[in-house]
Write a structure and sequence with these properties.
Largest sheet: 6 strands, mixed
Structural class: alpha/beta
Order of helices and strands: HHHHEEHHEHHEHHEHEEHEEHEH
Strand content: 5-15%
Oligomer: single chain
Shape: globular
Helix content: 40-55%
Number of strands: 10
Length: 376
Amino acid sequence: MRYLKGKFKEIILIFILMILIFPAIQKTFNLIKVEWLKGAIVQIEKKEVTLNDWFSAEYQLQYEKYLNENFGFRNAFIRFNNEISYDFFGKAKANGVTIGKQNYLFEENYIKAYFGTDFIGKDSIDNRMEKLRFIQDTLSKLNKTFILVFAAGKGTFYSEYIPEDKVIKKGLTNYKYHLKRAEELKINHIDFNHYFLKNKFKSKYPLYPQYGIHWSKYGMCLAADSIIKYIEKKRDIDMQNIYWNKIDLEYPKDEDYDIADGMNLIFRLKSFKMGYPQIQFEKDSTKKKPNILMISDSFYWGMFNFGISIVFNESHFWFYNKEVYPDSFTKPLTTEDVDVRKEIQKHDVIVVMATQATMPDLGWGFIEKAYNAYKK
């Protein structure tokens, strides 16, 4: 009996040692393929040792960080921990993510934007919108068209799913006051919040996903088509349009699942199916192709990626008025490296687009730069 107890202890000890050693073996030989984590994750690189770093202990601190984030099965352990947190405690192990009713996922900034807790004040918005009116008038004299686009926000579209502990008395919001001033100052604008809510229960396919940050692929295609038609109307031209003859019905993927992807769970979340249009472009060389400059947050990425630039002659996307695309795909280029007035001169249509969560910083400095450039 004593012999069996001794053997059992040895087996337990060996098992524990295997558990402790196996991550090191996995790190060295990569025996089992482990899926990478998704989201905004910065990989810590292994640092080369130098004498200065060694004696200042900088190398040791950096190497410790590297080991902590690069041991075997780390990603699997994180997913396991995140799954337990989600399933048993209803918490999301992702920065700024809130789990709403019926498991609808929100980024907290969209909830703040819906209730108005991020309101920047009437004076600030008045000043901004008056500058936009000046920019619009100036560009109109140069035969250019300015358009302000209010992208739809998830907090507004799915307000009924905001969790009770986040519900407060609703105040004046940045979106509502920007829209009010745009109407009063007669600034060219498209309000997709109004359109999406109006068609929320009429649309054949969901306009917003359950687990995504941005409007759905279908909703984004409708928005892209509307922007093209609005440009046609304002400039009195006929452009190549986008269309689709087929819409695939699939469970959410890509951008329609990006919040859930960022939560890095083991099991996929259940959801309703979404519409995925097979986008095509008119092929008519006689139609007009204006040059467009789009200053936007991430809500323009979907359009940019499906190839909306085809309907324009020259198309530039200033992401948060910082990186310049498509130029930055080959070599980094920022708006600090370009002359805003010269760039405006090259384009026929200038669009500023933002969703409710990013509206406190609408234009991200572009409005002030453009105003100063032409006011002089």
